[in-house]
Amino acid sequence: MPLTNQDLIELTAWRRKLHRHPEISNEEEATAREVVAFLADTRPDTVLTGLGGHGVAMVYDSGRPGPTLLFRSELDALPIEELSGVEHSSLAPGKSHMCGHDGHTAILAALGRQFGRQRPAKGRVVLMFQPAEETGDGAAGVVADPRFSQIAPDFSFSLHNLPGISFGEVRLKPGVVNCASRGMRIVLEGKTAHSSMPETGASPMLAVSQLMPTLAKLGGGAFTEDDFGMVTVTHASMGEAVFGVAPGRAEVWATLRTRLDERMAGLCAAAEALVGHVASEHGLAFAVDYHEIFVASMNAPTAVEHLRTALDEERVAHSEDGLPIRASEDFGIFGRSAPSAMFFLGAGERHPALHNPDYDFPDDLIPIGAGIFMRTARNLLG
């Protein structure tokens, strides 16, 4: 049964409720409860909670043999102060849904409503409301959860809204669609000194000033090529905010980015070698650790063809233009256990960019995204 006008009114209101009450990665407990409550009357056959943190999986089972299809959305918001000015703006200081995960979640809820009224003819549909996408922890945690074996999919599908693309158009291609990335934290340790006698200490000042531009030069290769690499320095700090002490400790943070996972190992090795050389040159100890690790997202050709068929049947314009994109996405983890594909749904050419403080998910994308997913599911499961 298709979505009704009343469904869309209620889904839009619910999306805006989620928007008012954002929770950042690994804190999505209330959001997860809200998902379970909102879809309770659809009577899912199985509900798994606490997956990989606060993840929720809802299963709509035909009771007949057939494939298992997983459709995934994200629960988490960002640590960004909202400046959109919309009536349903975030009520949580310093936190907001500036990536549209509230809208993706509403799209999955739209599927839940429809499968609650009519189960698939065969197989199962799993609606996976995933936590902690923004930190790269969520998908890995879900897949590592022993209960994931109960819902192991034959295909996994996802979407992400994308400003800068005409509203309602789709970008989709096989192969790499999102880059691998990881955050590199570099700690430099020297010796503090009185600011009147800096020569008695070992300051990391020159090392920091040398590292920042040289790290950024480590990348290379055209973005269209498999050897693409990119390093972006994102943060640096040194010493204490006082005038009387010459610093003895500093941190430099950088994001390393590659098209392929294999290339990432080489980029990390080059960055670590550079840090070691610079630290030694200035008589400093150093340590390196990594955070927010994302693997490359690869769209399987078979999964892409299922989506393309649905797009054509739904009369949604689509192309491969602009793919892959540099941004990372932890959905790639699901592709390691089953064919998977993500498509990008245009939020409008002039819509505020993702992660900007004035962004808000366009509610009119809810029926478009849900329609593509539903057509995919009905084509495969009936």
From TrEMBL:
GO terms for molecular function: hydrolase activity; metal ion binding. The keyword Transmembrane does not apply. Residues 182-280 form the Peptidase M20 dimerisation domain. Mn(2+) binds at residues 99, 101, 134, 160, 355. Keywords: Hydrolase, Manganese, Metal-binding. The keyword Coiled coil does not apply. Its cofactor is Mn(2+). The Mn(2+) ion enhances activity. PANTHER family: CLAN MH, FAMILY M20, PEPTIDASE T-LIKE METALLOPEPTIDASE, PEPTIDASE M20 FAMILY MEMBER. This is Amidohydrolase. It comes from Neomesorhizobium albiziae. The lineage of its organism: Bacteria, Pseudomonadati, Pseudomonadota, Alphaproteobacteria, Hyphomicrobiales.
